[in-house]
């Protein structure tokens, strides 16, 4: 007769108990409580969640207004733009304290520590809203070859300023980069964030007038070298006789380049020596658009990369253009060298890469 300890029932109970114990050991990590966040981590999570909720709210508000045909508020894009910056900045703060929140790459080529891939659809909606809010007015005069126009004008202006063929090509490439940076290569657009800046190169009325005046001074040199381009210019002048020239693509580009950039086209060889990278060159000319005075001073210094700015107003202009905008460390900056500024212009890089590719396609006759 078997002993109680060795009975089948007793043995089964031992086996069952052992199996249960093993189950607890195996599953314990999966059932463990989530790691408790520090005060700083919890604050960062809350700040990002709040910013994301605010971004969704303003996107939905603008979409509702547009779909209902309601009048939009003055500068309807400003609140949307600032909400996007807040989302990216608070996400950078979050990933700084919780690197585990850094996700996979995104379709916009934004560094993953600045951008949660889950909000890609929101950014697409953001772009769609701006396309509506900044649509060209009905009277705007478009070009069938907007990118080629930019390149042709950049080249022609550089040649009139005494540049050789290679330098003129660089001027055409840089000009196209500015077009991409300012409007994503969309011609004649308005501006949902400003009452001042309009058109293909986003110029103000005084800048446009200044560009027209400077063009008049080189017009004869341009006509002598390129009669066909001069004839096109005359035709566009006649076409735009009764409208704001900023809404004629050809004239807006011409006047914008003449106002801010043309005087530096002859200096491109020296700039290329200081900044051999083509993307850096386009970034520098974009800074002529954003902060012209310190950028010209940096060029005159002979060493652009080491030139430092510490003016609070200039740093504010940079931040308003998504440079040193994201994360506490950047927001706390009080000065920067131009090398640091160029590196911080990573949001512009994909635009300039597209411009460079389009330029080569135009130069090779594959794109008009």
Structural class: mainly alpha
- Share of helical residues: 55-70%
Order of helices and strands: HHHHHHHHHHHHHEHHEHH
Instruction: Label the overall shape.
Output: globular
**Strand line-up in the sheet with most strands:** 1-2
- The helix count comes to 17
Question: Which percent band covers the strand fraction?
Answer: under 5%
Describe this structure in words.
The protein is mainly alpha-helical. The chain is 64% helix and 1% strand. It contains 17 helices and two strands. The protein has a two-stranded antiparallel ribbon. The longest helix has 29 residues. The termini are far apart.
Features:
368 residues, mainly alpha, two-stranded antiparallel sheet, 17 helices, 64% helix, globular, disordered N terminus
Question: What secondary-structure arrangement, pairings included, does this model have?
Answer:
Blueprint lengths: L7 H24 L7 H29 L8 H22 L22 H14 L12 H15 L4 H19 L21 H21 L1 H13 L9 H12 L1 H4 L2 H7 L3 H13 L1 H9 L7 E2 L2 H9 L7 H4 L4 E2 H7 L4 H15 L5
Antiparallel strand pairs: 1-2
Summarize the entry for a quick read.
By secondary structure, the chain is an all-alpha fold.
